[in-house]
Amino acid sequence: MNEQQHLDTLKDIKRIMERSTRFMSLSGLGGVGAGLSGLIGAWFAWRILDDYRNGSPVSYESYDGAAYDGSGNVNVLILKLLLIAAAVLLCALTTGSYFTWRKARQQGLPIWDATARKVVFNLAVPLFAGGLFILGMIYNGFYGFVSPACLVFYGLALINASKFTMPELRYVGFIETGLGILATFWLGNGLFFWALGFGVVHILYGIIMWWKYERAPQGA
Amino acid sequence: MNPIEHLNKLFESRIRLGVMSVLIVNEEVSFNDLKAMLDVTDGNLASHLSTLEENAYIKVHKGFVGRKTNTTYSITKAGEKAFKGHLAALEAMIKFTQ
Description:
The structure holds two protein chains of two kinds. By secondary structure, chain A is mainly alpha-helical.
């Protein structure tokens, strides 16, 4: 046994420790896909909101206030926006999972192992709590807080899950949470913050991760 | 002062070293998860696990998930000490030769 063999053994140990605690197949391209879905969704939402504003006498600022309680079609508007949100979630999950599955296959790693389960569980708990909380807000007509709350809960979910996957996700979590908090003090710009957090941040994160880990298939 | 003396013979096997590496950072790991993480066959893994168990480096917990048996493994205090000693010896040898 020489020095190089000992170094290799130590590297092996480190790799196994990391692989057994962190899900390292999360793909940067998946992040870009999710971000693009977010931006496209935001664009549709903006169009729908624009139509709604132009067709209604109520002022620009109050679209996400409770001022529409009396008007009949606010429910249609909310329904449309919820459908867009659901479509964005579906697209983001699909592209994210697809690229992650592809990366796992390239690395020869299982996609659904103990670490993947930990990531999903640690994401799901804050997201589920946040989702119910947001449904409660929609039910009570606090539409302006929906986008900030989405960002805050999503950010906290990422911070929570980052212990079991790419450590960089922690910073994304801080940024999303920060954007959400900022948005609560700047109500009426929900869509802007939503597009920034779910669109731009995901795309930037995805590109950085792709650049860092996936650009050239190292050692493959 | 020769650090070679501190290298643990039991950890000369890559699979046993791999099992210890997984168990030192995870509280409890099932047989199937270990198998997937280390990419080994059932029989191979089982024999290495029983060697580690005989030396009291790991503990076996037999449980059930529904009707299926679910065997999980965790590291013992003695195992932790032995593994850390082995790591320190490896590191020392790298410094020793440099």
